[in-house]
What does this fold into?
Amino acid sequence: MAPNSPLPLKQLRQCQAQYTLRVRGDTAIGTELTTINQGFGGSGFSIVGGNEAGSFRLDPQTGQLTLTKPLLPGTTELAVTDQFAVQPCISRVLITVVDENNNTPTFEHPSYLFTTPCGSKGVIGRVSAVDPDQGLNGVLTLSITGTSAFTIDSRSGEVHTTFPLPAIPSAYQFTVTATDGGQPRRSASSVVTINVRPCLSMPDQISSPTTTMGTYAYSAPRCPEALVMEVEENRAGIVLGSVMGRDANPGGVLRYMLLPTADSRHFQVDTVANAGRLTVVTPLDRESEGTIIVDVRVLNNYGQFCETPVRINVLDVNDNPPVFPQNQYQFRIDCTGQPPFTIGTVEARPSLSLLLLSFCLQEPVIRQGLGLSVAKFDTLDFQCYFIYLFTLLNIRKR
It folds into this structure.
């Protein structure tokens, strides 16, 4: 064989030096990964196996191994040699791509809509999310927030009910979040809406005191016959009280709703969590809305219901001062008369119809140069409002 001619690959022995590399998946092209060293002599480094995709380059002079293409997840084994070395051999280079958690989970759909009949229990639908990262970085855990009526399987994404859905038309909306197992963790969210179809065409038809489903008979809830509550005018965010329904069915969950009327917009009822707690959400005006009646419906899991009328009395608040119909009064005094005598009458309107006004006359101040007598009045309307009333008097000289 001619001097410096390469040996056939099958005649090359395995080098003692082997290389194991762990390379990040986002390593930039052109990065030097390692330098192959097979002893003295030679300048004939080459890759003789495992580089079919052309992702690596081995400098024939220096033995530097460089990345030439983006890496794919997995492990690559290269066979390299310096055929012009004094004792040529083949080195094995094991390159493992280490995945970085650089991808955010993605839901199959940005939002989900499921429609289900009333009384449904069990699996309602399924949401799906993916993460292209490898290993734990791509393992997703699903969770649910914003509702107690549903749960979700953290792996499969199946959405389950926690109780039979009510028999009236209703809608639920909540958020599902997918979180990966990487560090730092990445997550994404999707909104889920579930529409419940009514069992009957009109909710008011579901009024039977007993409903039979399968072999079980369920009783309708019980409500108070009527309630009276009070609230001061111009107050919002005030809890009036609670409509406490009773459910005789084992394990039942009652739900509360306000029947829609022109006046029900002023109020809000807690659906489940606080047992029908009724709250004022917009300020009320005693002068225009002295008494309001709203109806609260209480439903069980099987579409049965009862209703309670709630009478709400709006209490007046002393929030306005008295009003004089005139800003100024003028009286003429006949100084020849014998006191006491009436020189005139002033009038004022109270802010509340049931309040009484008290008038008092402060000591007049005589302005001699102008011939004026200024009298100050005040009025007591459970509060002290000082109202200055100027009265022009004619001072008749005798």
Summary: The longest strand covers residues 170-180. Residues 250 and 306 are 18 Å apart (CA to CA). Residues 200-208, 210-216, 365-398 have pLDDT under 50 and may be disordered. The two ends are 157 Å apart (CA to CA).
